[in-house]
Amino acid sequence: MDLRSRLADIDARISDAARSAGRDPSAITRIVVTKFHPVDLVHDLAGLGVTDVGENRQQELTAKREAYEGDPVRWHFIGQAQTNKARAVRRDADAVHSLDRARLADALHAARPEDDDADILDVLIQVNLTDDPGRGGVDPEGVAGLAEHVAATCPSLRLRGVMAVAPLGEEPAPAFERLLSYAQSVRAIVPDADWISAGMTGDFAEAIAAGATHLRIGSAITGPRPVHG
Predict the structure, then answer these.
(1) How far apart are CA 26 and CA 15, in angstroms?
(2) Is the CB of residue 140 less than 8 Å from the CB of residue 178?
(3) What are the backbone dihedrals phi and psi of residue 22, each rounded to the nearest 5 degrees, phi first?
């Protein structure tokens, strides 16, 4: 299938999954992950009505945002962020899905433009749903504390909700149910933090059933990633 057909196929599957869960498909945002693809793909996606794209690496986000000249899109940074890249991430991302520690929150807040008090960055707390501390995300026990830190000390960050990746070797549905409970704990601190970024090509139906508002879909729409050396 070509790009248009792949996009239509995924969107139809998202709509079916939403209706099966008793949800409105229009309440779900589909983010197309363009990792390793050239900026031309973002132009093509925008031409097909895509409004949200995702990148995993700061360097690639920066290069594509600088090169992109098409219809406006929202750029979501979904990879692990280093504090020394906070300024570039802040400049080039419209939303950061991978906030996992107070030090990163402080760095993103400190990177705000000094002459623009209206510049607000949307952020989501990434939760580690595994027992492996090497995986990205804050431990579930630290979610509420991180949310409180952002809300109390980082006024240029707008906490929108939570993000997670389903663990390998575990059925995604119970993992996403746990994420929903963590999302509720965040909303107890920031009531309008109602985003749940969860679900990729293989598990977005389970994520939708658990309340996901943002899905991160890559090669099922974009096609195989180019060989990356």
Answers:
(1) 8
(2) yes
(3) 70, 30
Q: Which two tokens stand for residue 81?
A: 């962020």
Non-local CB neighbours of 9 within 8 Å, separated by 6+ positions:
1
Are the C-beta atoms of 75 and 53 separated by less than 8 Å?
A: yes
Q: Residue 119 corresponds to which amino acid?
A: D
Pick from 151, 93, 97, 148: nearest CA to 119: 93
- Between CA 67 and CA 10 the distance in angstroms is 27
Q: How confident is the model over 108-153, as pLDDT tens digits?
A: 999 998 877 779 999 999 999 998 888 899 999 999 999 999 999 9
Helix (H, G, I), strand (E, B) or coil at 187: helix
- Domain extent listing, the chain: 3-222
Residue-level length of the chain: 229
Backbone angles phi, psi at 162, to 5 degrees: -130, 160
> Which CATH number applies to 3-222?
3.20.20.10
- Predicted TM-score of the model (pTM): 0.96
Residue 143 and residue 162 in contact, taking contact as beta carbons nearer than 8 Å: yes
Per-position b or e across 52-81, b if 16+ CB within 10 A of its CB: bbbbbbbebbbebbeebeeeebebbbbbbb
Phi, psi of 117 (to 5 degrees): -70, -15
Note whether 183 and 174 are within 8 A (CB): no
